[in-house]
Every structure is written in structure tokens, then in C-alpha cells.
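Quick illustration, no need to memorize.
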Amino acid sequence: MSYGKSVLIIEDDRDIANLVAINLKDLGLSSDFAADGVAGLKKAQNGTFSLIILDLMLPELDGLEVCRGIRKAHPTVPILMLTAKSEELDKVLGLELGADDYVTKPFGIRELMARIKALLRRSDGESNRGTEFTHEVVALGGIVVDFAKRRVTSNGQVVDLTAKEFDLLSLFVRNPGRAFSRSQLLELVWGYQFDGYDHTVNSHINRLRNKIERDPGQPVYLQTVWGVGYRFTDLEDLELHENSGAGKNER
């Protein structure tokens, strides 16, 4: 883990915030702190952080609104949400608004640190699966991914993706036609294996579909493989789609 990185902790429970800060220090990471949503959003908008740890239930401004505000100011900074077990719907909403991952309270500190290290791994310059192809450009149908620039276009239009959205799409386009389970995607993209976090994958898939598909309800690129997980369409399927007339009707 690289030194000199700073993490913003937006958490109204001082004991939890202090515990997280102590363990971040053990990783060589500095931290800043905000105890309410308004102060946290202001610090996030004005500061430069490698990661933001965001509690969902906050005074003044709730975590969902803070997440929305952070994403407008900083589209790619990793956001790790802290949620309670009872906040099932809010977990999904937070992920849909752009959070990269979440941890459910009460959490084990080892699990939390594993999530933090996984989210920071790419920015640290550590090898993530497939990063040996950083100068590659892949085009599949109307989707073009430039790995050096971390830039994606869909039918010629630039698509704004969060860091994890880009990593997820990169894995898919490098392996067209291959079906991945949710647990495989968690391991390959997020860098961990923990049960009960399917929402993380499902919400990122939904967000990607909304950004790259003409009709997210009938996806051409990101397909569900029932009983398995998800796959990115291959060239043969794209050609069949185009020849069927569906592609012509969409133009």
C-alpha cells in the first residue's frame, strides 16, 4: 500500500471513525473526518482523497445525498458505504448513485480493511487482473474501450464511468462471450470474496447497462446468463443481432 494517500471518513459515530482511522494509519494512510453530511460533502468536494468512507445514516444530510453530491464533483473517487443490515433498499440506492462498494454494520475490521485495500489497489499501481494490456484499445460493436486513457465511448459518444464501472466493463470486453458468476466478478474486479454482497455486482451491471445500452431493458451487450451470472456479447452474437434487423431499427 502506498504512503501519502488520504481517506475521508464521513461518520457520525466517533468511536467507529476513530477505530477506522487507527487501522488506516497502520496501512500507512492518513485520514480526515466529518461527523455530518453537510460537512462531509463540503470536504469531499473541496479536498483530494484516494477513498471516501461514507456512512449511510448521517445528520444534516443523509449518505445518499452526500454520495450523489460527491459523484457530481468527483466521478471516479472510490466510495465505500457503511450501512446497517436493515437498510436493504438504501444499499441498492447507494450503489445506483455511484458507491463502489458497501460494508454492513456491525463489520469486522479485517473485512473493512480488505475492502479498503481492494478499492485502493488500482490507484496504488499494484497489478490488477488484465492491467498488462493498459495500451490496448478494444472495440466490440459500438463500444470502444481505451485502457491507457481509461476512456469508453458508445456509438461515438463518451461514457462517464466510475472507477469500478470501468474495471467491470474492462473485464467483460477482454473476455467476450465468457459467463462470469457474481462471486467471480467480486473477486476479479473488487478483489475479495465475501458472501452476501450480490447487490454490489447487480447494481454496477444495471448502471453500466443504463450507460452503454440503447435499451437497458433489452440489453445487447451486457447479458444475463440465468443461473450463472453475466456475460458480454461476442462478435458472432453482435453480427446476428445486426443481421436480424434489430440493429437497423435502432439506428
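Residues 153 and 159 are 5 Å apart (CA to CA).
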